[in-house]
Amino acid sequence: MSIDVASAERTIRRGKAITLAAMAGLAGLYVIALYYTPTERFEGLVQKVYYVHPPGAYAMQIAFGVVGVVSVLYLWLRDERLDRFAEASAEVGLVFGAMTLITGPIWGQPTWGTWWTWDARLTFTLIEVLVFAGYFALRSAMQDSHERARYAAVLGVMALLLVPFNHLTVYLFNTTHPKPITLQVGKPQLPDEMLRTFIVGFVVFTVLYLGFVITRYGIGLRRAATEAYDA
């Protein structure tokens, strides 16, 4: 038992170290966005949200995608560690999902003239967040740990379909949401300074996701080890 707890504590420490590094990177990103990157001439200062909103949405999709993939592995291998990792990634995904739904309207209100519109991309992002909120409601409703893990994994696999579909909404529907402009064939439609800052944002949020999920996974391992000891 002491080895399991010690291993969990090491995982938590690693996660916290990565998170601190990501937080430092996030602070640097804000400095770069505000003082180095030029202000967009039509949207003005509110365009600076661009450097955290798409990277945050990307981190949300990574988190939810990981839940689906790890859930498939759990249903195959029945390893409880996989269930704990899926739970950790879902929780982190909800954090990034909430951030996405908050930062989007901050940009949308002065740009579109409204805080919210039932645009396809916005609607499916909200659906994703609600589905994973339901994921935790399901987990809370199940007393048996094996049944909880199994049913949560099934929901996680089903929800995986939302990840690519959400990405495709801007191509499948008549949407006001901007299409991706950095992954187009040829030169991205951004000035070099904006593009570099945008890429830094994606790197920072990827590291932030890793730090969050490793820390949360370690906390789950520690909780499970403590519960096993108390039993």
What does this structure look like?
The protein is mostly helical. Helices cover 78% and strands 0% of the residues. The radius of gyration is 19 Å and the shape is globular.
In the CATH hierarchy, what is the architecture at level 2? Up-down Bundle
Number of helices: 7
Give a quick account of the main beta sheet: strands, pairing sense, barrel closure. Answer: none
Instruction: Please tell me the total number of domains.
Output: 1
- The topology string of helices and strands comes to HHHHHHH
Low-confidence stretches: none
Brief rundown of the structure:
With 231 residues, the chain is mainly alpha-helical.
Structural key phrases:
231 residues; Four Helix Bundle (Hemerythrin (Met), subunit A); 7 helices; mainly alpha; 78% helix
